């Protein structure tokens, strides 16, 4: 079974992905966590350190290249694994970032989404921009404004793919979110039987 987690920065994707994999392994089942980062946080920190702001299209090209590479590697690894595969982020995330920045979807990412093996479920961690902002400030590794997070949340909702995502309320504690994820995964697993 292949699960993809999406959501705005600060929604808890990485924490939820790790917790979900750990919970499945604790039940004695095989689970694999694969991360599909785009390097956006590192590029932002480097840009701030150097005092350089990359043009949106150049930043997107670098992020898209890194995300596509990671997604392709992850799908290759997933195809060789028998058990639950959880992907932390996917191409949907890059499409939402493009939408939030006012950039076109392009042809490559939608084509790859149609061509690559479809996830059994895309779980979208939904959280208010204000809560996400508090989490981002608490971790202290990057900066996003409430307005940027709101724009990204709206961008996810504007994606045609959003209609097929299962919304998970990610505003609670990590334990609450894990329980919701486990319910969603178990529900999907029962449907496949």
From TrEMBL:
It holds the Pfam family Thymidylate_kin. The keyword ATP-binding applies. Signal peptide: none annotated. GO terms for biological process: dTDP biosynthetic process; dTTP biosynthetic process; dUDP biosynthetic process. Keywords: ATP-binding, Kinase, Nucleotide-binding, Transferase. The keyword Protein biosynthesis does not apply. One of its GO terms (molecular function) is ATP binding. InterPro entries: P-loop_NTPase, Thymidylate_kin-like_dom. One of its GO terms (cellular component) is cytoplasm. It comes from the Bacteria. This is Thymidylate kinase. It comes from Arthrobacter globiformis (strain ATCC 8010 / DSM 20124 / JCM 1332 / NBRC 12137 / NCIMB 8907 / NRRL B-2979 / 168).
